[in-house]
């Protein structure tokens, strides 16, 4: 908890590159990993970013705790590396973050979308 009483969340950001013209493949991979992430302890949400111009794709997952994010990474990252091993020359990259939400605990989507 923050001192103000707002609950902390943690994020796992994964960046992977497929190259030009691989949008459908990126969607397929994203759907597969979205299903897996939703079954893991502490899951709170996913947001995906696609940059087809450079063939770069990002997945941002939210987790209840740092431990949940790390455990999810231990499950999903090796699977992603394996999936991409014959598709991409670039290895995927993962980073972990503590999430700061200025919306005072109104929910992850509140800070992403104007409703």
Structural features:
4 strands; ABM domain-containing protein; 3 helices; alpha+beta; 115 residues
Question: What is this structure, in a nutshell?
Answer:
This protein is an alpha+beta fold and 115 residues long. It contains three helices and four strands; from the N terminus they run E-H-E-E-H-E-H.
What's the SSE blueprint?
Blueprint: E1 9-17, H1 23-37, E2 43-51, E3 56-63, H2 66-84, E4 93-99, H3 108-112
Antiparallel strand pairs: 1-3, 1-4, 2-3
Helix pairs in contact: 1-2
Description:
The chain is built from 3 helices and 4 strands, in the order E-H-E-E-H-E-H. With 115 residues, it is of the alpha+beta class. It has a single domain (9-101), classed as 2-Layer Sandwich (Alpha-Beta Plaits). Helix 1 (23-37) packs antiparallel against helix 2 (66-84). The radius of gyration is 15 Å and the shape is globular. The two termini are 26 Å apart.
Order of neighbouring strands in the sheet with most strands:
2-3-1-4
Percent helix: 25-40%
In whole angstroms, the N-to-C terminal distance is: 26 Å
Order of helices and strands: EHEEHEH
CATH class: Alpha Beta
Characterize the biggest β-sheet.
Answer: 4 strands, antiparallel
CATH architecture, please? 2-Layer Sandwich
> SS-based structural class?
alpha+beta
Mean pLDDT comes to: 88
Number of structurally distinct domains: 1
Extract low-pLDDT stretches. none
The DSSP helix count reads: 3
CATH topology: Alpha-Beta Plaits
Percent of sequence in beta strands: 25-35%
Radius of gyration, whole Å: 15 Å
Protein name: ABM domain-containing protein
């Amino acid at each position: 908890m923050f001192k103000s009483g707002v609950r902390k969340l943690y994020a796992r950001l994964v960046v992977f590159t497929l190259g030009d013209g691989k949008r459908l493949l990126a969607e397929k991979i994203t759907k597969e990993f979205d299903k897996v992430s939703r079954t893991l302890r502490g899951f709170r949400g996913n947001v995906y970013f696609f940059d087809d111009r450079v063939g770069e794709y990002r997945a941002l997952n939210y987790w209840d705790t740092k431990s949940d994010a790390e455990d999810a990474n231990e499950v999903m990252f090796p699977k992603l590396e394996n999936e991409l091993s014959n598709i991409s020359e670039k290895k995927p990259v993962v980073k972990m973050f503590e999430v700061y939400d200025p919306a005072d605990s109104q929910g992850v989507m509140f800070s992403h979308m104007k409703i």
